[in-house]
Amino acid sequence: MKLEQIEAARGEIEGFVTRTPTLRLSILDERTGGAVALKAENLQRTGSFKIRGVSAKLSALGDEANGGVVTGSAGNHGHALAYGARARGIQCQLFVPTDAPVSKVEAARRLGAVIHTCEGTVDECVEAARERAAVENLVFVHPFDDEDVIAGQGSIGLELLEDIDDVAAVLVPLGGGGLASGIAVAIKSQRPDVEVIGVQASACAPYPPSLEKGEPVRIEHAKTIADGIAVKRPGEITLPLVKEWLDDVLVVSDDEVADAMAVLLSEAKLVVEGAGAVGLAALLAGHRHPVDRGITVAVLSGGNADPNLLAAVARRSEEQSGRSVVLSTLISDRPGSLASLLAEVAELEASVVEVRHVREGADLHIAETGVELILETRGPEHTEEIVRSLTESGYDVSLPWGHQKPSPAS
């Protein structure tokens, strides 16, 4: 892979892809202790960087693709290929894992793609797509292990060098390796002093053992919220590129990814999927500190997050910050008891999100009922005030595991 290939690919896809913004947020500088920027590929057409590589590949294929294209994908690559195929009036078939995010699959279906599901992960879907290509004389478009695709993804690196004069380090999501290697070649061919670091999810991280062994190592796959980079085996093309051009590979946990997604949602008002948030997760969790001089960039590779996952991430963030809490207590089964409890909570200026009655339990007296309250508070101190006041009023308040009751007021 050479810089000239990336520059040529950029010329071919210009006008078909969006030049995404590079954003600065002071809160990220404060949280990480350095100067941090975000390359917002989550705002790209089809919601991810994948349209760059797909556009470059379809341009390179020309009339060869007129009989139709096929691929295996967890979502974003397939969505992008469906978009590109419809724009060119050609057939598109996708093989997706049975547990692929519904939102991504349905987006491709709406664009006219024929969807096939198969057991396993992206790797098994890729093999199924290869077989279909041979049977039906379709063109197989690999999600990452293809030089045209890699060159298209590398256009992000060219934009970063143009947009940020003092870029010093770039953290890139690392799945199959097409995005990371393309960006690394584009940047380091011109600025070898700039560090390019790949970031994987710990539940599916084949690059560390593969780099150590010097050949692609297939690993067992575990479920991860970073499904877009859950690739069990590096590519034959991408592994040597990653070894040659990347400075380091980091690994982050799902909890760290969820925290990064929550920060992006609450502080930047950006919807970013798990795979797209791993670079920022590495910075926020301290796996990598921003450089002392210059800008450290986290590439947000996609924004096609499942709504249910986003809701879970938001709830987790609220609970961890202390702004949402679940309290359990016992009240008399007599009329008016619940109203009295809720009136006291209202006086304490907490917002009641939900009330649940618990009437079954070995420890419940026949004249008692359990009550579980989900409250929105101003934060941990406000929660402590609520618990203390209810306890002083005679309620035996229980908190979720990991929380401690405040000491009685002196």
Which helices and strands, and how do they pair?
Elements: H1 3-13, E1 22-24, H2 26-32, E2 36-40, H3 50-61, E3 69-72, H4 76-88, E4 92-97, H5 102-110, E5 114-118, H6 122-136, E6 139-140, H7 147-153, H8 155-163, E7 167-173, H9 178-188, E8 195-201, H10 207-213, H11 238-245, E9 248-252, H12 254-267, H13 278-284, E10 295-300, H14 307-321, E11 324-332, H15 337-347, E12 351-358, E13 368-376, H16 380-392
Rg, Cα atoms, Å? 25 Å
How many domains make up the 3D coordinates?
A: 3
* Helix content range: 40-55%
Quick one: CATH class of the largest domain? Answer: Alpha Beta
The pLDDT mean sits at: 90
Structure write-up:
A six-stranded mixed β-sheet has the order 1-2-10-7-8-9, sandwiched between helices. A four-stranded parallel β-sheet has the order 5-4-3-6. The chain contains 16 helices and 13 strands. The model has no long low-confidence stretch (mean pLDDT 90). It has three domains: 3-48 and 148-316, Rossmann fold (3-Layer(aba) Sandwich); 51-143, Rossmann fold (3-Layer(aba) Sandwich), CATH 3.40.50.1100; 322-392, 2-Layer Sandwich (Alpha-Beta Plaits), CATH 3.30.70. It starts with a helix and ends in an 18-residue tail after the last helix. Strand 7 (167-173), helix 9 (178-188) and strand 8 form a beta-alpha-beta unit. Helix content is 41%, strand content 19%. With 410 residues, it is of the alpha/beta class.
